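Please review this pair:
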Amino acid sequence: MKRRRALASRDAGDGVRRGVIPVALAITVSCTFWAPATGMAQYINVSGTGEVLARPTHVEIHLSAGGAAELTADANQKCCDAVRRTTDAFKQLDVKDLTIEERELSFTGSAPGRNAVRGVVIAGGGGMVARGGVDPAARAQVGMSRSLRVVLGNIQQQDEAALRVTIGTLIDTARDTGATVLQNAPSAPMSLVTFVVDDADKQLENAYEKAFDAAKSRATRLARLAGATLGPVNSISEQQTGVAYSPRSAALNLNSDGDARLMSDTLGDIPVRVTLHVSFALKARDDPDSDDEEEESK
């Protein structure tokens, strides 16, 4: 028992001395041993973290086009005209892999006399200026708007300088048509564009494999220090899955089909991190069912 405690203390010190680890492989370890005299199995519990980088595949710009009027029929006509004007402008651009999608329709209203703009005559012939305030003569208006999503695909194959020009052209085109460019990046509400990895399942799978391999490698080493060999997995659980900490604002979501979707407000690789907690059985060195010999042969 004293020997096991000494080994556990030695391993804790080893973790402190090795505080600097590769960014793509961060590992935390906790070990628990049961005394053979109790008749209980012995286990070692290890947490392993795997990280991979995902490159954005397309960029999205979210727009709103519509209009307002006192009558709903007039508001509807203004909305249809605004949407048609915006979509036609983007379709006329000679940009490869560019699409525009019509999405949600929303309705808004304003109370009579609220937030109206009145013209005020300046004495001495200075003309008229606009002054905000409550105008009792103003009538309630109905607003109708359509959300639009502009998608530029295959950006991972484009030169960054050319991509900057293209994105600028898309923003200018939207503004020229009178549409509103929405600022709705996942974690940066002031960003006009969102960089996306739409199908990130492969990157997530790689991160899971790295996390498990890291946990198993560390557990094998600790088992050897404890004078035992590594047995089969007793249990495994997912502690954390998401975007690793970085200066960029990023998020991991699931789309309507359940596929992973990574989003960031900046152009660059998005770090995806998975942490797994794995419990392995410990066996005697001469146990033929142990995995230690397999690990040593690798």
In short: Residues 2-55+200-297 form a domain with the Translation Initiation Factor IF3 fold (CATH 3.30.110.170). Helices lie at 2-17, 72-91, 160-176, 201-225, 292-297. The longest strand covers residues 229-243. The chain is about 30% helix and 40% strand.
